[in-house]
Amino acid sequence: MPDEIRVIDYYYATVPDKPGEAARVLSALHQAGVNLLGVSAFPHGLRRSQLDLIPQDSAAFAKAAKGAGLQLSKKKSGFLIQGEDRPGVIAEITSKLADAHINITSVQTFCAGSGRYGGMLWVKAADLRKAAKALAVGAGTSRSASELATRL
């Protein structure tokens, strides 16, 4: 299966940094039927944590988050990247952005097992359109790595 890169929506919420808080939030979203494509959490100030949440369906997610009492950031966008794991795959993708003079705000990727990888990549909002063009993706679409290579 070829690599896929697509534009995704994400939100963040700042929550207390205490045992069980992530479980509470994630369980509430699960109970509401929300499917998350990704989650990232890290300390954010004194006794606070930031949860980055990447929903499959932003409208359903926003409704469920409100019902769970979460105060969300405004909707932001980034990229979901996934495909067959191989040496240098992330270097290939990030090089496309470097060549276009786009700074990466954050990237997180992991081996997903069974020869697959997946991750999330963020750039500044002002660079999103330029980054999508550099990666040859459009909002809500995917392109294979081979298409990326031949188009750039």
List the SSEs and their pairings:
Layout: E1 4-16, H1 21-31, E2 36-43, E3 48-55, H2 58-67, E4 76-84, H3 89-99, E5 104-113, E6 116-123, H4 128-134, H5 145-151
Antiparallel strand pairs: 1-3, 1-4, 2-3, 4-6, 5-6
- The value of Rg in angstroms is 16 Å
Secondary-structure element order, as H and E? EHEEHEHEEHH
Provide the low-confidence segments as ranges. 138-152
Distinct helical segment count: 5
| Count of domain modules | 2
* CATH homologous superfamily descriptor of the largest domain: ACT domain
CATH class of the largest domain: Alpha Beta
User: Which CATH-level-2 architecture of the largest domain?
Assistant: 2-Layer Sandwich
What order do the strands of the largest sheet run in, or round the barrel if closed?
2-3-1-4-6-5
- Fraction of residues in helices? 25-40%
Q: Residue-averaged pLDDT, rounded?
A: 89
Proportion of residues in extended strands: 35-45%
Distance between the termini: 21 Å
How many beta-strand runs?
Answer: 6
Biggest sheet, in brief? 6 strands, antiparallel
Look up the CATH topology of the largest domain: Alpha-Beta Plaits
Characterize the overall form: globular
Helix/strand class: alpha+beta
